[in-house]
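Worked Example 4.2. Consider the chain below.
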Amino acid sequence: MSRTRDARAGGLRACPHRCLRRVPRRSLATRRTAAALGVVLASACASSGSVDQTVQLPEPPAAITAEAVRAEQATRLTEAARLVFAWRAQEPDFRGEGTGVARIEPPAKARLDLFLDNGEVAAIAALVGDELRIPAELPSELVPPPALFWAALGVFRPGDDATLVAGREDNGTMELEYRLPTAGGVRFRLRGHAVADAMVLDGGAVVQRVLATEPGPGSDYPAEATYRNLRDYRELRLRLETFEHVDSFPSNIWNPGLRGSRRDPASRGGRL
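Applying the procedure from the previous section yields the following structure tokens:
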């Protein structure tokens, strides 16, 4: 049994987000390293995907609207599954890595658990439809908003209340932009029906995004997904290691809380 599983078997320990391998501030060299990391992250966030933030998409023709509906249908969840992945997070002053577990179940339920290498909990979140549920005891900085959360799992789901306002197709790549009830919107880039890029927009600028690769052999899920918060220079990388289809999960996991997670039958014995 791995160190992480041993720690889980003894009960989940909450790790405040700031325990993610703090970069000491005492030395000038370290401060320069942190500053350099911020510049690297800013550059990476700004350049990835080559999105022209100033280009406005045209109003979607009927064919694009119909194709968007087909993409939602093609990527919706059809069976429960458990995904295990390696994750790595970094910010200008903090970094951490470990093992993560995602549990998904139709029609639209997902739960994400991130553990540090020592077994401490870095993040827990559940997504039911478009409702994001995060325990008050745990940080939310590493968790993408709903549409991007789904995109990281390979699901194209703009949201029940999202309205398609623009779109185009070019050489097999479709770009779609949706208006959300809240301020701003979300833009997707799809190749075929697979989500390659999802972006949260604010005033025409990309402020958050998820980049997803194609699934690996025999998989329906992206081999890798990267979430970036461009304003905060925050990045979370997920690399899928294994997945398995299951019958179902206990219903209580979709309403996570730190104490509830400890009682979660699926987490006993060190296995989520």
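The chain has one domain: 3-270. Helices lie at 3-9, 28-47, 62-75, 146-152, 258-263. Compare this with Example 4.1 before moving on.
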